[in-house]
Amino acid sequence: AGSKLREVFDKINNLLSGKPVQTEGQTVSVTQHPQGLEFVCYKLAEKFVRHGEGEVSFHRDSAFPIAVVLSGIWELHPRVGDIFLAHLHKKCPYSVPFYPARKEGTSMEEYQRMLGYEVHDSKVEEQDHFLKRMSGMIRLYAAIIQLRWPYGNKQGAHPHGLSYGWRWLAQMLNLEPLADVTAMLLLDFLEVCGNALMKQYGLQFWKIMFFIQKSYIPRIEAVTSAGQMGCFSRLKSFVQKCLQEQEIPLPKGILTPTFWRT
């Protein structure tokens, strides 16, 4: 509910503003320790990324309420946004976007960690789990860049707005595609903020969509094996349908004005 989200936002904002906050039966304040504020900014940013790889990867619609709170906090407390991006880029290099290359002397285990895989006791997480986590983080990022906290001061610019999404898309299309990963991330990104990018960039956006269909999708197909065609096929049909209808649908779960009255 919108009222519940406002409560969460106010509590986080009060904590970061140095006001005393009630939690689990005790009162806490960042002023209680010289590094209190820095610690809270760090842990809060880390928590938002964890929501992306956990909550959003399983419940895709949850990207929007989480993102709108972070967007508002980022506007008032830029340090949280900076640290959030640092955590996000480390956990999900594709959010840069960047495909790390394996350097000489780097062990396979270390390289897999650089690619975003979780490695415990030399055991690498399964591909499906890895893709789910990356998908959750990209969907959260794609939601953040288009959302603003509705009760904030709209005078200034969005701290990390749609121009960053445009840049992400352009940089992504300049990279050689990876099997599995590229198709999934592009589809996630376009599903979540394609509509907002279309409204903002108009004809330029449709040129990019046409480029994806004509040039980039064949390049993804060339590196995709028969067993990895699921996401590739969904991306291909999504782009084709959007170009045919000259419309990108609103993302499922977007927060409407009526949501804030709940």
TrEMBL record:
GO terms for cellular component: cytoplasm; nuclear pore cytoplasmic filaments. Its main location: cytoplasm. Pfam families: GLE1 (PF07817). It comes from the Eukaryota. GO terms for biological process: poly(A)+ mRNA export from nucleus; protein transport. The keyword Electron transport does not apply. Keywords: Coiled coil, Cytoplasm, mRNA transport, Nuclear pore complex, Nucleus, Protein transport, Translocation, Transport. InterPro entries: GLE1, GLE1-like_sf. It is found in: Cytoplasm; Nucleus, Nuclear pore complex. Belongs to the GLE1 family. PANTHER family: GLE-1-RELATED, MRNA EXPORT FACTOR GLE1. Required for the export of mRNAs containing poly(A) tails from the nucleus into the cytoplasm. May be involved in the terminal step of the mRNA transport through the nuclear pore complex (NPC). This is mRNA export factor GLE1. The lineage of its organism: Eukaryota, Metazoa, Chordata, Craniata, Vertebrata. The gene is Gle1.
